[in-house]
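Anyone have tokens for DedA family protein? Sequence:
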Amino acid sequence: MRRFLTGALPFYALALLAVCMYLVLYRTNLFDLNAIVHGATGSAWFPAFMFVCVLLEAVFPYFGYFPGTALILMSVALSPKAVDGSVFVAAWLAIIVGAVLSYGQARFFRPFLQRVASKAALRRCESLFDAYGAYARIALFVHPNASAMYFTALGLLGRNLTRELAYLCAGAAAAVGILFVIVTRLVSSVGPTDDGELQLLLAAALVAIGTLVGLYTVWRTGRAV
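Reply: yep, here.
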């Protein structure tokens, strides 16, 4: 069970954050996302709006879970004609910039970590990253939050950033592309309004991915033994 949770918990945590944001954004009167997205899609500044939203989601850990990808989903579902290549590029760049910023702030705080954490704990983190780091790159293809967490870990462990940029660029493109395909092909039938179904769908997908990753971790560890 412990091995399963090692792989699954990060994705379960993201799913829980997504559900919390669903409750805040769709079950309170704090925001009217439908009005916000409708207004944004009619503006020439929509790609910039999307860049900022996804960037906030892609910087870890200051913003926790900001619904940047949910706004991509809503913008496609509510106004497909407003979403073109510029929006795709804006979201792609935002994930890359967010991951690099996450890496930079982790490197900045690394000396503090080395003062407060024991050498044994740091060695355990290093060994875990050596064992599972290649598989953690899968997170780059899943969600901006997961990508930011991965690059935060890279920075805290002092790993090289340059050789990871190719994975980041490919993962960011795949993540945004999958979001566009899912909405335009599967969930664009939500109609002119959105009551949070897309956010819940994202949470369910994260739970499913976490379960698969956890099962794979158990299977791989069993084979190693």
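Residues 54 and 158 are 26 Å apart (CA to CA).
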